[in-house]
Amino acid sequence: MSVVDSVLERVPQAYRALALRHRELIKFGVVGAITFFIDTGIFYALKLTILSPKPVTSKVIAVLVATLVSYVLNREWSFRTRGGHRTHHEATLYFIISGIGVGLYSAPLWVSRYVLHLQTPFTSRLVEEVADFTAGQIVGLLLGMAFRWWAFRKWVFPTDHEDDESTREGALAR
């Protein structure tokens, strides 16, 4: 029994069916939470040290590292009952889609900094930090995550038999 299954057993009966139906989304969300902390840690480590004048570059590097971790976790856990592509084809699609995701994650920060000029000397350091966090870690994350969830299910980890009981039973056994 997986960790998610054991947690779902403790969910009140009224919500259990809903949680089981969206188990894949819950796993994707857990992976997203893990990689959020990786992304945030690397972003601020770079932004506040060696790449302080280049916050967008810091963000891109952070997202790339988090994406590598995300691929492994999503492939081996979130979407392990899906697929059908050879590993190299799957990985290629994953990283192409994630590359688009990097742009979506970074675009709000770029707009905040270079279009809205929410940076020093145009604003205070506090406003700059709040704007960077909001644009880069919240808005960018939501845009990128929504796109990646949709694209991964559609192209990277597709399945033609979502409602096939034997597929579900096999997934529950894993």
UniProtKB/TrEMBL annotation:
Belongs to the GtrA family. It holds the Pfam family GtrA_DPMS_TM. It is found in: Membrane. The keyword Isomerase does not apply. Residues 27-157 form the GtrA/DPMS transmembrane domain. It is a multi-pass membrane protein. GO terms for biological process: polysaccharide biosynthetic process. It comes from the Bacteria. This is GtrA family protein. Its main location: membrane. The lineage of its organism: Bacteria, Bacillati, Actinomycetota, Actinomycetes, Pseudonocardiales. GO terms for cellular component: plasma membrane. PANTHER family: PROPHAGE BACTOPRENOL-LINKED GLUCOSE TRANSLOCASE HOMOLOG. It comes from Saccharopolyspora rhizosphaerae. The chain crosses the membrane at residues 25-44, 56-73, 93-111, 131-151. Keywords: Membrane, Transmembrane, Transmembrane helix.
